[in-house]
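User: I'm putting together notes for a lab meeting next week and I want to include a structural view of one of the chains we've been expressing. I don't have a solved structure, so I'd like a prediction I can at least talk through. The sequence is below, exactly as it appears in our construct file.
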Amino acid sequence: MSVKTIYLAGGCFWGMQKFFDQFDGIVSTEVGYANGPDRAPSYQEVCTNSGHAETLRVDYDPAVITLTQLLNNFFMVIDPLSVNRQGNDCGVQYRTGIYYTDTDDLPEIEAVYKAEEEKAGARLAVELMPLQNFFPAEEYHQKYLDKNPTGYCHIPRSMFKLR
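Assistant: Thanks for the context. Below is the predicted structure for the 163-residue chain, given as structure tokens.
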């Protein structure tokens, strides 16, 4: 099995992890903080404008789920026009982004991005850029909604049962 990785910032990372964990081909997920200063922040620092985005690392098997499918799923659960906000969560840490580490993925990412922009009829607020850094979040954030099923999330609970 060949495993690839993409980093997705889609607002609160608890729901993003729960959402992506349901799909076949997802090898593993990890929530963390990305594309801020080159220093691992605490959750408290992220909540007080450290500059990092709450981000989900997605390791996937492209023979089972394609990058295009992953990104189409991503766009199902975010508001791509919203700046620094998803649902009731607002602040720079809740910005949306697609952060890649393999430039060979860029044409596929750009094709999905362009299609979403055309669908929206407006410029997307979703950052599209190389991953600068990623720091895993504290353990209590990992699989948070599995540990705390009544926790808040901007993603409707019905979206956690697509597969």
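A couple of points you could mention at the meeting. The chain has five helices and eight strands. The CA atoms of residues 82 and 138 lie 27 Å apart.

User: Perfect, that's what I needed.
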